[in-house]
Amino acid sequence: MNLANKITLARIFLVPIIMFLLLINVNLSELSFQDFSITWNQILATLIFIVAAATDGLDGYIARKNKIVTNLGKLLDPLADKLLVAAVLISLVEMDKVDAWIAIVIISREFAVTGLRQIALLEGAVLAASTWGKWKTAVQITMIIALLLNNFPFTFIDIPFDQISSWAAALITVYSGIDYFVKNKNLIPLTE
Question: What residue intervals traverse the membrane (predicted)?
Answer without folding.
Answer: 7-26, 38-58
